[in-house]
Amino acid sequence: MEQDKKVLIVTLDYPPEIGGIASYVDQFATALDPEQVRVLAPPKEGGEEYDKKKEFPIYRKLFYFPKFIWPRWLMLYFSIRSVLKEEDIDIIYIHHIIPVGYVAWLIKKLHEIPYVIFSHGTDIIAATRSDWKKYWVNKIITSSEQIITNSKMLNERLLKRVDGIPQKKTNVLYPCPEDIFKIKPSKKEIRTLENRLGVEGKQVMLTVARLTKGKGIEHLVKLMPEILKERPHLVWVIVGDGPEKESMKELINKYNLQNVVRFIGKKEHDELPPYYYLADLFVELTHPYHGKEEGLGLVFLEAAAAGLPVVEGKSGGVKEAVIDGETGYVVGTFRDKEVTEKITKLLDDKKLAKKMGEKAKERIEEKFVWKKQLENIEKWL
After folding, report:
1. For 281-320, what is each residue's pLDDT tens digit?
2. Which residue has the higher pLDDT, 377 or 225?
3. Beta-strand pair 203-208/7-10
4. Could you give the angle at the alpha carbon of 285 between the alpha carbons of 150 and 256, nearest 5°?
5. Of the ranges 46-55, 158-167, 261-270, 296-305, which one carries the lowest mean pLDDT score?
6. If you placed Cys at 17, which of 22, 207, 225, 299 could pair as Cys (CB 3.0 to 4.6 Å)?
7. CATH label of the domain that carries residue 151
8. Same structural domain for residues 195 and 49?
9. Are residues 305 and 359 part of one domain?
């Protein structure tokens, strides 16, 4: 993408942080002209090593003052200002309306640098829980150049929850899987992984997720004994880490699934493709949890890029990632019979699974490519 403006991306979530938002921000930044993009993110263990791999500078600075200093977010103002002293920034892209939006609004007032808001869903909920925050959200949005969400569902939710936003000021920029997910690893690499996981001659069901509530993993654990009656040679590979990991392991032990589930833990993004190509299908039963829903789900697009059919829970914008009945199935997470039937159907019918996977891969090339997505930004701005 050709750029005539130098961009500063300010984000709370950035690798090596695990999660869809961090991946979205990183891939978006990587798709821009490296001479014209800079990233500001919080310090993170492993960040220095990760940042060395990138072609553009990444500034790691504190976003918050200690708890005894208020407002804590004012620290971010000084962090951004220090970057502005080093870089000739034309526009700021902020991720999360609050708290980053407070500072973007202040920067525009004091330094006359415009900003664009990228909203990922959870920030919309948090930002509209009180009248005071709603007041500030309106000020921040009114002062912005544009508001970008990662799905139509989030765009509609934003317009409903925040009064007075002109529809022409909001747009959708879908996440896109990296090219590494479109290229099949060598047979040797897949065979090595197969041997290491002990899944030779078995069917493999894959889940890649941050292990938190709302991903539906606990519920799928409870359904596994029923699924295994139909497919006794099935192995479930779970890649990811998070706060619910130990409780999920306890549940797996409770259901005597120790020999069925392979907990892989955290993997770097570029280590994921062999897992997708080893699998027969991808399953993640997302569902609303405490007001939070999946924005779109980058992992569903990564699976599609690898030619995998998907069974996903009906939550948030995930139906934009999977066409029900064509590239996979969108199911009610707690409709047990529906979930088990769709999973076993794809495991039993290899011809159908292959057809859906091929359709999914075609759709990625048609719609979810960064070059095509980024062409829209210049039109909007």
Report:
1. 999 999 988 777 777 889 999 999 999 999 999 988 889 9
2. 225
3. unpaired
4. 145
5. 158-167
6. 22
7. 3.40.50.2000
8. no
9. yes
Which region holds residue 66: left if phi is over 0, alpha if psi is between -120 and 50, else beta?
A: beta
Residue 253 resides in a domain = yes
**What 3-state DSSP class applies to 10?**
strand
115 in the same domain as 41: yes
Q: Sheet of 91-95: strands edge to edge?
A: 58-60, 37-41, 7-10, 91-95, 115-119, 146-149, 170-172
Q: Tell me, yes or no, whether 216 and 355 share the same domain.
A: yes
Based on the domain organization, do 221 and 362 belong to the same domain?
yes
pLDDT of residue 19: 80
| Mean pLDDT, range 63-67, rounded to an integer | 95
What pTM was computed for the model?
A: 0.90
Give residue 283's identity as a one-letter amino acid code: V
Residue whose pair of structure tokens reads 């020999």 in the numeric block: 259
Cβ-based burial of 341 (10 A; exposed 0-12, middle 13-18, buried ≥19): middle
Which residue stretches of 212-349 are H helix? 217-230, 245-254, 273-278, 298-305, 336-348
Alpha-carbon span 381 to 377, nearest angstrom: 6
β-pairing, 58-60 with 37-41? parallel
Residue 2 has pLDDT above 60, yes or no: no
Domain interval for residue 351: 179-367
Domain boundary among 173, 197, 224: 173
The C-alpha atoms of residue 92 and residue 77 are separated, in whole angstroms, by 13
Helices 74-86 & 100-111 angle (0-180, nearest 10): 50
Same domain, 291 and 335: yes
Q: What is the maximal distance between C-alpha atoms in the chain?
A: 65
- Write down the pLDDT at residue 381: 65
Query: Which pLDDT score, from 0 to 100, does residue 83 have?
Result: 98
Please check whether residues 247 and 102 belong to one and the same domain: no
Task: Identify whether 375 is part of a domain.
Answer: no
Q: How large is the average pLDDT for residues 88-107?
A: 95
What is the side-by-side order of every strand in the sheet holding 261-265? Answer: 261-265, 234-239, 203-208, 281-284, 310-313, 328-331
